[in-house]
């Protein structure tokens, strides 16, 4: 019985040792699979990061902002959001005027799921207004 246990342990040890003998290609593939997705850098820390992302050449268009931030709700009607292109759903809102619509886009609508800037905190006021104008133009 002791001999069988010893044989099993020796066999297990042999298999463990074989698992350590990886080729360079296998090791590289494993490192690629488990590498971090990204990194966090503190302001002023020049030891991480890499090249800074190119700065935007100007404000995004209303369509670009819609596609990046607004479409999730206004493309599906999620949480009661009026869908882009649904003239009936937009009619009463449009009738209130563009100032009211711009204010709703910028500051949200109390009692609804519409939050300030539609949750796009990296959108400028100008970009949010352009997105609102884009949705209105496509929903009349």
Question: Would you give an account of this structure?
Answer:
By secondary structure, the protein is mostly helical. It has a domain at 62-137: Cytochrome c-like domain (Cytochrome Bc1 Complex, Chain D, domain 2, Orthogonal Bundle), CATH 1.10.760. The chain has six helices and no strands. Helix 5 (98-107) crosses helix 6 (125-137). The longest helix has 19 residues, at 2-20. It is elongated and about 90 Å long. The chain starts with a helix and ends with a helix. The mean pLDDT is 85.
Would you identify the regions where 5 or more consecutive residues have pLDDT less than 50?
none
Label the structural class: mainly alpha
How many helices? The count is 6
The name CATH uses for the topology of the domain at 62-137 is: Cytochrome Bc1 Complex, Chain D, domain 2
Radius of gyration: 28 Å
Average the pLDDT over all residues and give the rounded result.
Answer: 85
- The topology string of helices and strands comes to HHHHHH
């Amino acid at each position: 019985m002791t001999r069988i246990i010893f044989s099993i342990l020796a066999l297990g040890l042999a298999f463990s040792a074989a698992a350590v003998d990886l080729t360079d290609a296998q090791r590289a593939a494993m490192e690629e699979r488990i590498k971090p997705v990204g990194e966090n850098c503190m302001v002023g820390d020049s030891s991480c990061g890499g090249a800074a992302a190119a700065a935007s050449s100007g404000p995004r268009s209303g369509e670009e902002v819609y596609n990046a931030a607004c479409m999730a709700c206004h493309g599906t009607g999620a949480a009661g959001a009026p869908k882009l292109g649904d003239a009936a759903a937009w009619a009463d809102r449009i009738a209130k005027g563009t100032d009211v619509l711009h204010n709703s886009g910028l500051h949200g609508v109390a009692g609804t799921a519409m939050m300030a800037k539609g949750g796009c905190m990296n959108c400028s006021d100008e970009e949010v207004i352009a997105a609102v104008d884009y949705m209105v133009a496509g929903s009349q």
